[in-house]
Specification:
The protein has one domain: ABC transporter involved in vitamin B12 uptake, BtuC, CATH 1.10.3470. A two-stranded antiparallel ribbon has the order 1-2. Strand 1 and strand 2 form a beta hairpin. By secondary structure, it is mainly alpha-helical.
Amino acid sequence: MNAKASHYLQKFSIYIVLVILFIACSLISPYFIQSSNLINVARQLCVGILIAYGEMLLIVSGFLDLSVGSVLALAGVLSVSAYKSTQSMFVAVLVALVVAVGCNLINALFVANFNVPAFIATLGMQQAARGLALYYTGGQNILQLGDFVKVGQGTIGPIPVPVIIVVCISIVIWYIVNNTRYGRGLYAIGGSRSAAEASGINSKKSIYKSYIINGLLVGVAGMIFMARNNAGLPNGAVGYEMTGLTAAIVGGTSFTGGIGTVSGTIAGAFIIGFLENVMNLVGVNPYIQQVIEGFIIVLAVAFDVVSKSKKSQKVIVKDE
């Protein structure tokens, strides 16, 4: 295989895998290909895709967020509570975004200004946000959401409202990543933060922007999650940070930073979604599903490390 063919194969491998998986799932279960099932898969993936976008932006620049699930729950239950008190969707949206962005600003403060590793800073926020969600609700679910459920369960024509929201956000994230100075700077920071700063990129400002965008995405995801479940769940979304990380990494985002795309992240999310869906259809034990997803993460990271190692060796050989 010549170098050009190898380059294209590597570039589009994730999409080839997605197509092959789609065909395989269609053969494994006749129910998979049904339009109602595919629409259901798309609806269920909306929260995961939004979280994955935030993780992708952070990982590309060399950081991450382990507090996603807890912040999502806190923003979601406070948004639900605000809606029940005011019957105003505007207030509900505002509360969700302010809470999620506020939590992420705290993450950014520790990471950017105090040089606390993102792993530690966001792990602390994971505990704090979950505790606040449970304290506010007394550990009880908030029920009877009224029209709030339309955010997660409504449709416009045949298309689910969450899908429309995610498509619109996807366009915005794609534009930010590919057509703004901030987006281009993410890759430079992920490649080498010191080199990026030497070239005039304000890494602290970029970190704050990344966590703010992550907060906006988590806030929207929190509303969709609660509306889809028709309840404010303070114990909800446990482990969702792994959902986002898995989709981003499987979609080609390098855990060592500097590499990642919006389209790849979407493909990664659908690969995980298709796998989960077909496993549910054929009756695979939920605990075994977790085992399989765990192996997928490890294999994706291992593949990334090996690929980078091979590229480095090629560069060294050429230099010699």
